[in-house]
C-alpha cells in the first residue's frame, strides 16, 4: 500500500502512463542503475589508486602476471603510474558523459510527457459538455492545463527520478565503503540515516499542507489577473484598480509564502549535510586511529572515506531537496489526475467531427416537448416547449430575463441536452449526429470574441492560413456589409484588429461576428441578443445586413430590444420556461397583454 501522499501520487502517474511510456520510464531506471554503478566504481577505485600513489612498489602486487615476479624499475613504475592516472581520468570522463546522456534522455522524456498531457487535458476541456464550462472557472482550467501539468512532471516526477538516482548512488557508494571497513561504515551509515530521517520528519507534513495551499492560491492569482485585465474598461471607469490589485496581492502573498518555505527548506540540506560530512570525516579519523593507531597506515582508507563523503554530500543534498519538492508538488497530481484519466478516453474520431458535412435542412426544424434543468437547480429552465420553424423563416424569441430565451437557443445549438424531448430537422433527430447539425449553424453572440490578430484570421476563426477559403471569406465580408470598411483599411483583411477588437467600433465588431458566422455558409443563423449593446443607428445597420439574408437562411434571434424583431415572420413569447404566446409582432400586440407591456415605447411596424 502506498500510504504516503507523495507515493500515492507516484502510483497515479504510473496509471496515467501508457505501456510505451512505462517502458521508457523503466529504461530510464536502468540507466540510473548503471549510472550509480559507475559512480560506485569511480569512488571504489580511489582507495587502490591512492595506495599506489603513496607506495608505487605496490604495483608489483597488482601486476601478478609478470614473469618471474621481477620487481619494476623506477622508470617502469613511472610509466605504469602515468598509464593508470590517464585510465583513471578517462574513467571519470566516460562516467560523467554517461550520466549527462542519461540526464538528457530523462529530461526529454519528462518534457515530452508534460506536452502530451497538457494537450490531452486541454483537448478534454474543449470536448466537455457546455454545462461543464458553465460550472468551472476558466482560470482554474488554464492553471490545470498549463501550470499543473508542468508541475506534475517537472516539479514532482523529476524530483522522484532524482531521488531514485541519488539513492542508488548513495547505496552503491555505501556498499564500497562497507567492503573497505564494515565497522566504521555501519556506524556512519546508521548515524546518517537517523539524522536524515529526523530532518525529513520535521518538515514533511508542513510541505504537504503548503503544497495543497499553493494549488489553491495559484488558481486565485490567475483568476485575479484574468478578471482585472479582462474587464479593464470597467475597472478604470469605476476606479477599481486598487481593489483588484489588493485581491491579486493577497493571493500572491500566500502563494509566495508557500514557495518561499519550499525554497528555504530546499537549501537547508546543503548546509545540513556539509556539517554532517565534516563531523563524519572527523569521526572516521578518530575511529581509524583507535583501530590502527597510525595515520600512515590508514591514509588510503581515510582518502576513500573522504572521496565517498565528497561524492555523497551533493547526492544527499539533492536527495533531500528533491524529496521536499516532491512532497510539496504531490498535490498537483491530485488536481489533474481525474481530468487526465478521463481525457485518455477521447479518441481521434471525436476530433475529426469538426469536419463532418452539415446536416441537410430543407423543410423544418421541430422542438418536441423539450424539458431542461440546469445542474444543481430545482426549477426547470424549459418546460414542455414544442414549436416548429420552417426553413427560410426569421424567428424571434422574446421575454423577460430568466424566461428561457437563451436556454432554448443553447438547446437548439446543441450546447445543452434536454432531459426530455427531441429536436428534429426534416424528421431526423439532431442527436444522431450532433456535430453535423452544428456545422449547419452560424452563431452571432452579443459579445464577439476577437483575438489580437488579422481581420482575415478572426473571420475564418481558428483555421490556419493555408486552409482559408478566399472566395468564402470575401463572400462573408460582402454579406456582412463589411466591404467598404475593409477597403478603407491600409492592410485590408490583413489589418490587426487588436485584442478583443479594441480598435473597432461596436458595429464593426458585430459585423465581423456576422461575417464569421457566414464564412462556412450555414443554413441557420442564430443571433443571441447580438445588437443589445449597440446604439439605435448602428443596430439598424447591422439588422439591415441580417434582414438581407432573410429567406435565403433560417434566422433565429433572441431579442432584448423589440425593434430588432418587428419584421420577424413569427415571435415566441417565453415566460417561466414555456411558450406563453406566439404570432407576428402585430398579432402579439393585439392578443398578448404581456407583450403589449414589453412593446410600450416601440412603434408598431408599418403595414405591408
Automatic annotation (TrEMBL):
<dbReference type="InterPro" id="IPR003439">
    <property type="entry name" value="ABC_transporter-like_ATP-bd"/>
</dbReference>
<dbReference type="GO" id="GO:0005524">
    <property type="term" value="F:ATP binding"/>
</dbReference>
<dbReference type="InterPro" id="IPR011527">
    <property type="entry name" value="ABC1_TM_dom"/>
</dbReference>
<keyword id="KW-1133">Transmembrane helix</keyword>
<dbReference type="GO" id="GO:0034040">
    <property type="term" value="F:ATPase-coupled lipid transmembrane transporter activity"/>
</dbReference>
<feature type="domain" description="ABC transporter">
    <location>
        <begin position="365"/>
        <end position="601"/>
    </location>
</feature>
<dbReference type="GO" id="GO:0005886">
    <property type="term" value="C:plasma membrane"/>
</dbReference>
<feature type="transmembrane region" description="Helical">
    <location>
        <begin position="156"/>
        <end position="177"/>
    </location>
</feature>
<feature type="transmembrane region" description="Helical">
    <location>
        <begin position="25"/>
        <end position="53"/>
    </location>
</feature>
<keyword id="KW-0067">ATP-binding</keyword>
<keyword id="KW-0472">Membrane</keyword>
<dbReference type="GO" id="GO:0016887">
    <property type="term" value="F:ATP hydrolysis activity"/>
</dbReference>
<feature type="domain" description="ABC transmembrane type-1">
    <location>
        <begin position="26"/>
        <end position="325"/>
    </location>
</feature>
<protein>
    <recommendedName>
        <fullName>ABC transporter ATP-binding protein</fullName>
    </recommendedName>
</protein>
<dbReference type="InterPro" id="IPR039421">
    <property type="entry name" value="Type_1_exporter"/>
</dbReference>
<feature type="transmembrane region" description="Helical">
    <location>
        <begin position="183"/>
        <end position="200"/>
    </location>
</feature>
<keyword id="KW-0812">Transmembrane</keyword>
<dbReference type="GO" id="GO:0140359">
    <property type="term" value="F:ABC-type transporter activity"/>
</dbReference>
<dbReference type="InterPro" id="IPR036640">
    <property type="entry name" value="ABC1_TM_sf"/>
</dbReference>
<dbReference type="InterPro" id="IPR027417">
    <property type="entry name" value="P-loop_NTPase"/>
</dbReference>
<feature type="transmembrane region" description="Helical">
    <location>
        <begin position="272"/>
        <end position="290"/>
    </location>
</feature>
<feature type="transmembrane region" description="Helical">
    <location>
        <begin position="80"/>
        <end position="105"/>
    </location>
</feature>
<keyword id="KW-1003">Cell membrane</keyword>
<dbReference type="Pfam" id="PF00005">
    <property type="entry name" value="ABC_tran"/>
</dbReference>
<dbReference type="InterPro" id="IPR003593">
    <property type="entry name" value="AAA+_ATPase"/>
</dbReference>
<keyword id="KW-0813">Transport</keyword>
<keyword id="KW-0547">Nucleotide-binding</keyword>
<dbReference type="Pfam" id="PF00664">
    <property type="entry name" value="ABC_membrane"/>
</dbReference>
<dbReference type="InterPro" id="IPR017871">
    <property type="entry name" value="ABC_transporter-like_CS"/>
</dbReference>
Amino acid at each position: 500500500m502506498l500510504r504516503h501522499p507523495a507515493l500515492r501520487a507516484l502510483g497515479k502517474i504510473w496509471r496515467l502512463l501508457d505501456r510505451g511510456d512505462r517502458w521508457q520510464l523503466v529504461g530510464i531506471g536502468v540507466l540510473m542503475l548503471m549510472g550509480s554503478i559507475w559512480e560506485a566504481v569511480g569512488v571504489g577505485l580511489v582507495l587502490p589508486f591512492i595506495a599506489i600513489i603513496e607506495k608505487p612498489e605496490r604495483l608489483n602486487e597488482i601486476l601478478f602476471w609478470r614473469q618471474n615476479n621481477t620487481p619494476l624499475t623506477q622508470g617502469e613504475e613511472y610509466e605504469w603510474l602515468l598509464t593508470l592516472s590517464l585510465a583513471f581520468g578517462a574513467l571519470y570522463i566516460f562516467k560523467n558523459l554517461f550520466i549527462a546522456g542519461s540526464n538528457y534522455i530523462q529530461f526529454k522524456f519528462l518534457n515530452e510527457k508534460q506536452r502530451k498531457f497538457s494537450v490531452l487535458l486541454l483537448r478534454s476541456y474543449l470536448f466537455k459538455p457546455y454545462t461543464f464550462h458553465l460550472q468551472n472557472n476558466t482560470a482554474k482550467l488554464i492553471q490545470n492545463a498549463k501550470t499543473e501539468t508542468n508541475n506534475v512532471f517537472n516539479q514532482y516526477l523529476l524530483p522522484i527520478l532524482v531521488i531514485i538516482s541519488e539513492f542508488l548512488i548513495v547505496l552503491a557508494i555505501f556498499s564500497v565503503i562497507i567492503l573497505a571497513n564494515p565497522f566504521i561504515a555501519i556506524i556512519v551509515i546508521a548515524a546518517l540515516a537517523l539524522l536524515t530521517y529526523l530532518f525529513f520528519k520535521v518538515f514533511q507534513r508542513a510541505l504537504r499542507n503548503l503544497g495543497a495551499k499553493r494549488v489553491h492560491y495559484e488558481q486565485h492569482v490567475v483568476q485575479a489577473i484574468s478578471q482585472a485585465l479582462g474587464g479593464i474598461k470597467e475597472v478604470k471607469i469605476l476606479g477599481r484598480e486598487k481593489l483588484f490589485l489588493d485581491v491579486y496581492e493577497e493571493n500572491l502573498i500566500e502563494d509566495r509564502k508557500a514557495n518561499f518555505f519550499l525554497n528555504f527548506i530546499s537549501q537547508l540540506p546543503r548546509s545540513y549535510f556539509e556539517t554532517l560530512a565534516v563531523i563524519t570525516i572527523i569521526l572516521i579519523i578518530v575511529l581509524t586511529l583507535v583501530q590502527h593507531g597510525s595515520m600512515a597506515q590508514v591514509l588510503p582508507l581515510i582518502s576513500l572515506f573522504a572521496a565517498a563523503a565528497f561524492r555523497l554530500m551533493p547526492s544527499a543534498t539533492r536527495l533531500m531537496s528533491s524529496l521536499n519538492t516532491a512532497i510539496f508538488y504531490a498535490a498537483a497530481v491530485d488536481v489533474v489526475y481525474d481530468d487526465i484519466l478521463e481525457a485518455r478516453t477521447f479518441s481521434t474520431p471525436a476530433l475529426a467531427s469538426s469536419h463532418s458535412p452539415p446536416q441537410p435542412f430543407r423543410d423544418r426544424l421541430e422542438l418536441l416537448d423539450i424539458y431542461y434543468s440546469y445542474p444543481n437547480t430545482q426549477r426547470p429552465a424549459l418546460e414542455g416547449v414544442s414549436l416548429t420553424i420552417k426553413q427560410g423563416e426569421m424567428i424571434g424569441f422574446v421575454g423577460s430575463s430568466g424566461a428561457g430565451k437563451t436556454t432554448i437557443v443553447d438547446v437548439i445549438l446543441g450546447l445543452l441536452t434536454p432531459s426530455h424531448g427531441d429536436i428534429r430537422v426534416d424528421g431526423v433527430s439532431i442527436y444522431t449526429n450532433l456535430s453535423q447539425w452544428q456545422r449547419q449553424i452560424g452563431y452571432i453572440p452579443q459579445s464577439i470574441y476577437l483575438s489580437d490578430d488579422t481581420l482575415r484570421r478572426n473571420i475564418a476563426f481558428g483555421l490556419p492560413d493555408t486552409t482559408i477559403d478566399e472566395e468564402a471569406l470575401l463572400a462573408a465580408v460582402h454579406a456582412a456589409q463589411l466591404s467598404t470598411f475593409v477597403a478603407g483599411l491600409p492592410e485590408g483583411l490583413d489589418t490587426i484588429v487588436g485584442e478583443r477588437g479594441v480598435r473597432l467600433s461596436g458595429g464593426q465588431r458585430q459585423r465581423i461576428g456576422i461575417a464569421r458566422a457566414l464564412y462556412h455558409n450555414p443554413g441557420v443563423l442564430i443571433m443571441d441578443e447580438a445588437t443589445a449593446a449597440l446604439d439605435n443607428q448602428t443596430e439598424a445597420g447591422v439588422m439591415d445586413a441580417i434582414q438581407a439574408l432573410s429567406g435565403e437562411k433560417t434566422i433565429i434571434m433572441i431579442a432584448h430590444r423589440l425593434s430588432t424583431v418587428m419584421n420577424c415572420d413569427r415571435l415566441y413569447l417565453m415566460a417561466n420556461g414555456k411558450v406563453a404566446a406566439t404570432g407576428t409582432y402585430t398579432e402579439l400586440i393585439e392578443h398578448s397583454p404581456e407583450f403589449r407591456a414589453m412593446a410600450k415605447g416601440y412603434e408598431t411596424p408599418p403595414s405591408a
